[in-house]
């Protein structure tokens, strides 16, 4: 069987960027830190590029990764593509003098605290004249009333006057700190008719979102099922890390936190959809468009 013909026009740009980062850093770990990606995500991108080119590009060496002969041949044209892309970006910025001013973004507390900071650092480097206002709130801001220019939401917007793009589906699960699990009595860890009762659960207070989520999974609970309740996801996250009980978190975030361990309840948990939303002015406002497109690329590359 002949090798697949590599067509750069059909290849994901992130694959080339990731390839060069690994070349320059010499390891997946360091390259992932530079790109702000998880190591499994970066590894998948390199594997995809190798499948697209039909060649292994790296081989393991004593001090990290070493380019194969096929990889060596790809370095120069890949760097040329990177340089050309940067030149194109600079040309566009110079032509468009409207890339100045403020863009207001709204996102949940968790996204604002654990996702956006690294992305906004990159955004500030690329668009230094754009000012960002970030509304970190779990309440849904009304884009139609101009409470924000761009929203990152975990559900699909229903207003037809908005532009929305589905970026990803974040897998979520239940996690607890190993210190909390060690503190449970041995008889509590023994098999039970309802293993969920073994744990203290962290939930929401005024919001019934968690209750509805459990019920959709076929598990009937009420607010008293949760031994600790707070509507701040950030507070629940810190409570989980402190060992207060079992909480909910995206897999990509929990797996980065040393000490957190997954908890299985024998039921599937629906993934969390990530939507990027803006009003229709996006089409005519190059400043908002630039931020929207930048966020879309970075959020898609997150996992």
Describe this structure in words.
This is LysR family transcriptional regulator. One of its GO terms (molecular function) is sequence-specific DNA binding. One of its GO terms (biological process) is DNA-templated transcription. Belongs to the LysR transcriptional regulatory family. Residues 12-68 form the HTH lysR-type domain. By secondary structure, the chain is α/β, with parallel strands linked by helices. It has 3 domains: 8-94, Arc Repressor Mutant, subunit A (Orthogonal Bundle), CATH 1.10.10.10; 98-168 and 274-300, D-Maltodextrin-Binding Protein, domain 2 (3-Layer(aba) Sandwich); 172-270, Periplasmic binding protein-like II (D-Maltodextrin-Binding Protein, domain 2), CATH 3.40.190.10. It has 12 helices and 12 strands. It has helices at 13-25, 28-35, 39-53, 69-95, 109-114, 116-126, 178-183, 186-189, 209-216, 233-242, 251-254, 286-300, and strands at residues 58-61, 64-67, 101-107, 130-136, 150-153, 162-170, 172-177, 201-203, 226-229, 247-250, 260-263, 272-279. The protein has a 5-stranded mixed sheet. Helix 1 (13-25) packs across helix 2, helix 1 (13-25) packs across helix 4 and helix 2 packs across helix 3. The longest helix is centred in the N-terminal third of the chain and has 27 residues, at 69-95. It starts with 12 loop residues before the first helix and ends with a helix. Residues 1-6 and 189-193 have low confidence and may be disordered.
Q: How widely separated are the two ends?
A: 32 Å
Beta-strand percent range: 15-25%
The CATH first-level class of the largest domain comes to: Alpha Beta
Shape: globular
Helix content: 40-55%
Q: How are the strands of the largest sheet arranged?
A: 4-3-5-12-6
Average pLDDT number: 82
Uncertain spans: 1-6, 189-193
Q: Which structural category do the helix and sheet elements fall into?
A: alpha/beta
The H/E string reads HHHEEHEHHEEEEHHEHEHEHEEH
- How many strands in all? 12
CATH superfamily of the largest domain: Periplasmic binding protein-like II
CATH architectural category of the largest domain: 3-Layer(aba) Sandwich
Domain module tally: 3
